[in-house]
Amino acid sequence: MTATKTIFASAVDVEAAFYEALERGDVEAMMTVWAEDEEIVCVLPAGARLAGYAAIREAWRHLFERGPRFRMHLSRQSVTQNPFSVIHNNIEQLTVVDDQQQTATIIATNVFVRSPLGWRLLLHHASPASAEILSESPKVLH
Length: 142
Hints:
Blueprint: H1 11-24, H2 27-32, E1 41-43, E2 49-51, H3 53-66, E3 70-82, E4 85-96, E5 99-115, E6 118-128, H4 131-135
Parallel strand pairs: 1-6
Antiparallel strand pairs: 1-2, 3-4, 4-5, 5-6
């Protein structure tokens, strides 16, 4: 594992850094957002369950090395939080930078934990969205 020096003050900061790294295709920046814990998990759309720092790093390296660059737009975020963890469930609209016609809608869950090093990503789980999700009205939780 690589020692990280970035201290994220909130889960929102971690999530912003995650999506910025994804859009830049920057594996080093991507790995700074992850908790330094072998229990971290990442599931990319239609992908396998990846557990541990090395497996997750390799998957992102492979994706960034071979793939196009993406732009991501988040909407309809649902947030659950307590003092030591935060869960964000987002609708992601992913667009391929060089081909604006190539888009995908994804449902993603990001779980963040608070540690002595600040907030970090513990789990990213992304799945292709069904057509129904696009027509659903957002639900308001009270």
